[in-house]
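TA notes, week 10

Several of you asked for a full example with nothing omitted. So below is the full record: structure tokens for the whole chain, then the designed sequence directly under it. When grading your own attempts, check the secondary structure regions first.
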């Protein structure tokens, strides 16, 4: 699994200030295409995460929607940087059973990475021949990575080709 987080991460995310009410934060999250909300401080630094599951649990438990987001957030335990090697990230995902995690630059959120991003990288490596696979497992060739990953994979291949011609 060659490459870095930056090659496969998703750059879109939804962020909210720590003092925003849970009601407003829930509205933001439901209007977004994301399943988690990055909680930032006044300097724009990532200080926590509220997931859609956190909000569902809060609703089921009859929680107070006027509380600030910071009362429900979980401090981000694992964050990645754009330059981290994917193999290292995959090992951390496996060890900690992660589904997704924020990507930060100088503690400011710039995107996220999820298991699917890692899977697409692995599939791209298999399809390009960078990783060998049992020929009997031909069904892997029917899996198509998402377009944002294919664009980054093509860019990586172009950059590698340009370097080899130098």
């Amino acid at each position: 699994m060659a490459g870095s987080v930056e090659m496969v991460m998703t750059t879109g995310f939804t962020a909210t200030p720590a003092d925003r009410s849970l009601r407003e934060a829930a509205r933001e999250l439901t209007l977004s295409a994301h399943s988690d909300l990055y909680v930032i401080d006044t300097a724009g630094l990532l200080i926590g995460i509220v997931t859609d599951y956190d909000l569902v649990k809060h609703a089921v438990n009859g929680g107070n929607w006027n509380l600030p987001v910071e009362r429900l957030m979980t401090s981000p335990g694992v964050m990645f940087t754009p330059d981290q090697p994917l193999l290292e990230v995959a090992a951390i995902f496996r060890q900690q059973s992660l589904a997704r995690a924020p990507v930060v630059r100088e503690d400011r959120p710039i995107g996220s990475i999820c298991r699917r991003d890692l899977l697409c990288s692995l599939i791209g490596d298999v399809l390009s021949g960078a990783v060998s696979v049992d020929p009997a497992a031909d069904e892997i060739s029917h899996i198509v990575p998402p377009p944002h990953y294919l664009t980054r994979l093509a860019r990586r291949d172009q950059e590698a080709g340009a370097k080899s011609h130098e």
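Strands lie at 15-17, 36-40, 46-51, 100-105, 108-114. Use that as a sanity check on your answer.
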